[in-house]
Amino acid sequence: LFTMASSDIQVKKLEKPSSGQAFELILSPRSKESVPEFPLSPPKKDLSLEEIQKKLEAAEERRKSHEAEVLKQLAEKGEPEKEVLQKAIEDNFSKMAEEKLTHKMEANKENREAQMAAKHIEEVR
């Protein structure tokens, strides 16, 4: 950003258009003496080996805490999945037990009918 004095700017009013006001700003050419108000990059300070080591350790701690947080979230997400799997296993077990019981009842009914038919044949003879 460059600062400019008000003498560097000329304002020229144009003919009034129907929509409002119009101005033309004429800026004087930038002088070689104008210096940026803010330097492009901050001054670098020399870091000692100790400071670098502290920064590396702090970064490692942040990485570990982030990793722990991610693992915690994954574990929390995994709980509902485990519950869903457990429920599916229980439902499957219930269905299998019901099918087995139904099959057994049908077999008993067929055996009973066969026995009744055999008894009836014996009585008829």
From TrEMBL:
GO BP, one annotated term: neuron projection development
Gene3D superfamilies: 6.10.280.30
A GO term for molecular function: tubulin binding
Entry's Gene Ontology cellular component terms: cytoplasm; microtubule; neuron projection
This protein's UniProt keywords: Coiled coil, Cytoplasm, Cytoskeleton, Microtubule, Phosphoprotein
Any single Pfam family the record assigns to this protein: Stathmin
Compartmental location: Cytoplasm, Cytoskeleton
InterPro entries cross-referenced by the UniProt entry: Stathmin_fam (IPR000956), Stathmin_sf (IPR036002)
Coiled coil: 49-76
Region of interest: Disordered: 104-125
Annotated family: Belongs to the stathmin family.
Subunit structure: Binds to two alpha/beta-tubulin heterodimers. Interacts with KIST.
Protein name: Stathmin
Species the sequence originates in: Bos mutus (wild yak)
